[in-house]
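ok, trying the design again with the full structure, not the truncated one.
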């Protein structure tokens, strides 16, 4: 399975923010939407960075509640690792494990095309295991 197939199942909806928005605004969006990261993009859809819950916690830990008034650009991960739609699951797992992050923006032709999370990969693996289990049960029952 590759990224295009994951996005086909889950959709291409991605939360974005602009670099000048505040951490408070970004944290509010993350909380309301119950997600762990937001992509920082420009008006043309180019990925500038990514801001995770961890980034916000680190900022508040270092600067106190004053950090929430800072622009997202000050605390985001700039130039994050991205993948294309043809990247496969093994590549995603390797990148996430080595980089110790949970979200990968998907970029096609220089524009944001989606996002893949560790939860998407876990879902894929669980679905594959269920399919294999059901196939084995069917095979055994027919033997």
């Amino acid at each position: 399975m590759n990224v295009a197939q994951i996005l086909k199942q889950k959709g291409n909806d991605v939360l974005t923010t602009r670099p000048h928005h505040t951490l408070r605004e970004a944290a509010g969006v993350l909380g309301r939407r119950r997600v762990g990261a937001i992509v920082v993009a420009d008006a043309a859809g180019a990925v500038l960075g990514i801001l995770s819950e961890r980034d916000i916690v680190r900022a508040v830990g270092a600067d106190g509640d004053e950090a929430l008034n800072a622009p997202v650009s000050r605390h985001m991960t700039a130039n994050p690792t991205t993948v294309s739609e043809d990247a496969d699951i093994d590549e995603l797992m390797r990148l996430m494990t080595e980089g110790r992050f949970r979200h990968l923006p998907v970029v096609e032709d220089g524009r944001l095309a989606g996002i893949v999370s560790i939860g998407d990969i876990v879902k894929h693996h669980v679905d594959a295991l269920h399919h294999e289990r059901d196939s084995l049960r069917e095979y055994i029952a027919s033997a």
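Keeping the full-length input from now on. The mean pLDDT is 92.
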